[in-house]
Each structure stands twice: as structure tokens, then as C-alpha cells.
Amino acid sequence: MNVSETMPYALLVLADEDDVAIAVRDLEPGPHRTSNGRTLEITEPVALGHKIALRSLAQGEHVVRFGMVIGSATVPVEPGSWVHTHNLASNYIVTFAHRGGEQ
Amino acid sequence: MTPGEILGYPRADGRIGIRDVIVVAYLVECARTVADAIAAGRDDVHVIGFGGCYPSGYAQQMLERLCTHPNVGAVALVSLGCEGFGREHLAEVVAASGRMVTTLVIQQLGGTRSTVTQGRAWVDDVRAHRAAQRTARLELTDLVVGTICGGSDGTSGITANPVVGRVFDRLVAAGGTAVFEETGELIGCEHHMARRAVTPDLGAEIAARVGKAAAYYTAMGHGSFSPGNAEGGLTTLEEKSLGAYSKSGSGPIHGVVTPGQLIPAPGLYLLDVVPEGPPRWGFPNINDNAEIAELIACGAHMVLFTTGRGSVVGSAISPVIKICANPETYRRMSEDMDVDAGRILEGRDGIDDVADEVLDLLLATASGRPTTSEELGHREFVLTYKSSEPAGPACLPMAR
């Protein structure tokens, strides 16, 4: 998939080998088109810019986006589910998000 | 507008400015209000400075580079009088660059009012007696363009950042200079980056410097990752890195520089902002403007700033062009944005179309057209305690 093409779809797949697609707008559960011509049934609401699993991911498995590893699954992940901090962790540094001095 | 039609300000060192800023630099926080009062109400007078009382080799180097930047025409230094900053040396460096310089020492001039009066009179005098003009023909080969991303979200890495990457590919192919940052935001991309290096030694340096950044942030207990990044859909530091990395385009990487190190030859450069050794001064850069100042100190005439969640900042000395990645953010904050790259997500344009627009805007900005942040009066500047060592020969294979 060439990202320079225009994007009349709901889920952007940045590279053929990717395990996740990116929501190009806020999406409700249900079938949605991907940029590489598939239809994927998504199982939970997802916000613009967030990731959806394109296939099942085993616990500990590397997760690929734009052809690069972005971390490992911390629990088994089903196709169509939201992929974020609850099921994906960095292979480099634990994701810290500070708010109001809490960690 | 084509590159050969643009005129800039000629400087004695051969570089060409795209702005003619009079800098007022305070050399300790105690002199800041006086510096602000000297600059007040004057759009072409920008305040920069260093707040610390104790000497800093890094801050000294940064202010020397910034005060002799091609966008700067004249410099007033404002000193309280007892701070540790090397003000005489800074004044000598500025004078040696052919620029008008004055040093105002508050304790010697009798206090706030007399220093402000004298400073404002000096600025008036500079304006009256030094009519800087755009007489130097500016080609793309003269331009140094930096890039930074701030307030990133999940759209940054799929719209605005790839746009900048495309702009950089074209700028460098045309003989210009592009600088991207920063090693701590590229953790996870180091092996891919190393393969793009023009020499194996440079590739090894890039990988080692990213490794250094990873160790530094681990020792700090943080990644360069904010709650806003996660709300926007980014999960891990390496995922954010991937988005940031796409600003560098796809061409060969010609070198690595550190803050305040001038770029020796055209090409694509990585700015390594992370100090050597264990953390001593906290975060390498406390916010986006600390990093923008470092890009400018390396010679950047302007900075392409990509944002997903919506930054409003500009900078002292060099114009900032803001490229908004997220279409919803653009609609909400369009007055602060120069380019709507989020339209790529809505299928209204492709990456190449937006890259064309950015290249046109880059030339218009070079010729003097103000960016949104310039029009809104954003002239942020941050300089903190830090250490920095110049990158060695392995990092600069293109240096003559």
C-alpha cells in the first residue's frame, strides 16, 4: 500500500506485513473497509488514530506497523479488537504516562 | 516563486539570512525583564537568553551560535553584572561576525529604567544607521531546514510526518540541507536508520547514539511519551518513534550533529540532542522550544513543525511552519496552522500534493512572508543547563 494514495476507507494498513490497521476516523463496532481492499469486523469502538488487530496475536508476539516492530502483545489479541496499552507493551522502555505527578 | 528569485540578507560568513532580527539576549534571569522591556512592541526585536547564574559551556555555545545566526542582524546583550556567563567572549564572537553588538550591564548603568532607556535607544540607532536589505540571491543550496514534531497523535505518523519526509527528500535532492531530530524519539528505528547512512562508520554512530538515548531515558525512568500521545492512539515509544522517523524521508543520511554544531555540507542530518554520560541535568530537552532552539543553533533558517493534537508555538530568530496532521485539530485551531495535512486522511489530497504546498510555503517564507506563528507574535525561546559535545569525524563524513 502506498500511503501517497488517497484514502476513501476506514482502516489504513500502512504496509502489507502489518499486524494492525489505523482508524482514519472514530469507528463503531461492525464491518469496515481497509485500505488494502479487505473488510474487517471490528469488535469495539475505536478513535481516530488508534489501532485495530488485523489477525490474532499470541501473548509475547511482536506487533508490526509500517513494517516495523512497535512492541509485543502482553495478552492474546483477537482480530478486530483495539490494540493499545492494555494489550501491547514496548520492547524498549515501559510506557510511562505522567499526569499530575502520578506514574 | 522559484528558488533563484528569492533574495535574502547577506552575512559576512557567506550565509544568507531570511529574516533580519535584532536579538536582545539576557545573560541571567535577573536581566530578563529589562531585556523584555527593550524589545517590547517591536516585531523585529526578539528576546533570547539564559536564566542560570552559574557558567554553562552548553549555554555559552548556544548563545554564540544563535547570536551569529544568519537571520540575526544585530545583538544587544543584557547582563545584571555579577552572573557567571562569559559575556565578554560572547560580545567578541558577535563583533567578529561583523554584526553590531552592545553590552548593557544593569549594575553599571544605574538600574532598570536607565538600562531600558539605553537599550531602546541603541535599537533605534541600529535601525536608523543600518539599513539591512535583501540583496543576496538565495538558492535551495543555501537553505537549512529543521523539523520537529510536537503534540503528536496517531495521525502525525501517517500524514504530516510523511509529508515532511517527502519535502526533505526533494530539498536534499536539490542540494539543500535538512535536519531531523531526535535520537530519543527514534528508539526502535536505529537499525533501519543505520542502513541509510552514507558510510558504515556513520551507521554505527547512529545506532550507538540511539542506544545512548535509550539508556539515558531508562535511567531517567521515562520515555519521551506524554498522556496526550496515548490518548491519540500511540501505544509505545517505538511506535511514536516510527511516526517521528518518517519525517526524515527516504534518502541517504549524511551526518550527525549535536546542538550548536554547524552543518559542514549540504545533505540530510540527524541532530543528537542527548548528552553523553549519565543524566546530570534532567531531560535532554524540557519542551519543544528547547529543541527548536537547538535546530536553529545548528543553522536552521526555518523549522517545519508537525503536530497532531495542536501546538501553537513559534520561535525567536527563525520562522516556524506548522503542519497539522489531524483534520479535526485543524478545524479547531486553523488560525495557528500553516498547512492542513489532515486532509490526506479525508481522501481530499495525497502526500505529494501536500508536500508541494509545503515546498511552495517554504520558499514564500524564505522570501519574507510571515508564518501564522510569526503573525500571532509567537517568539518562544528556552535554554536550560545541559552538556553537549561536538560530534566527531565519523559523524561528519561529508565535511571537507
SSE map:
The complex is a heterodimer of chains A (103) and B (400).
Chain A (H helix, E strand, L loop, with lengths): L10 E2 L7 E4 L6 E4 L5 E4 L8 E3 L8 E4 L2 E6 L8 E2 L4 E2 L14
Chain B lengths: L5 E5 L5 E2 L3 E6 L5 H8 L5 E5 L7 H11 L4 E8 L7 H10 L3 E6 H4 L2 H18 L6 E3 L5 E6 L10 H14 L3 E4 L9 H7 L3 H21 L6 H5 L5 H9 L9 E3 L9 E5 L16 H10 L4 E6 L12 E5 L2 H6 L6 E2 L10 H16 L5 H4 L25
Parallel strand pairs in B: 3-4, 3-5, 5-6, 8-9, 8-12, 9-11, 10-11, 12-13, 13-14
Antiparallel strand pairs in B: 1-2, 1-7
Helix pairs in contact in B: 1-5, 2-11, 6-13, 7-8
Quaternary state of this entry equals heterodimer
How many separate structural domains of chain B? 2
**Which pair of chains forms the biggest interface, and how many residues does each contribute?**
A-B, 38 and 44 residues
Helix content of chain A: under 10%
Radius of gyration of chain B: 20 Å
Question: What would your notes on this structure say?
Answer:
- The complex is a heterodimer of chains A (103) and B (400).
- Chain A contains no helices and 9 strands.
- Chain A is mainly β.
- Chain A has a single domain, classed as Archaeosine Trna-guanine Transglycosylase, Chain: A, domain 4 (Roll), CATH 2.30.130.110.
- A 4-stranded antiparallel β-sheet of chain A has the order 1-2-5-8, with no helix packed on it. Chain A has a 3-stranded antiparallel β-sheet with strand order 6-7-9, with no helix packed on it. A two-stranded antiparallel sheet of chain A has the order 3-4.
- Chain A starts with 10 loop residues before the first strand and ends in a 14-residue tail after the last strand.
- Mean pLDDT of chain A is 83; it is low at 1-7 and 94-103.
- By secondary structure, chain B is of the alpha/beta class.
- Chain B has 2 domains: 21-129, Rossmann fold (3-Layer(aba) Sandwich), CATH 3.40.50; 138-395, no CATH class.
- Helix content of chain B is 36%, strand content 16%.
- Chain B contains 14 helices and 14 strands.
- In chain B, strand 8 (144-149), helix 6 (160-173) and strand 9 (177-180) form a beta-alpha-beta unit.
- In chain B, helix 1 packs parallel to helix 5 (112-129).
- The longest helix of chain B has 21 residues, at 200-220.
- The model of chain B has no long low-confidence stretch (mean pLDDT 93).
- Chain A binds chain B through residues 3-8, 12, 14, 22-25, 47-51, 65-66, 68-71, 83-85, 88-99, and chain B through 153-155, 157-158, 162, 166, 187-189, 192, 214, 217-218, 221-223, 225-227, 229-230, 232-239, 242, 246, 308, 326, 328, 344-352.
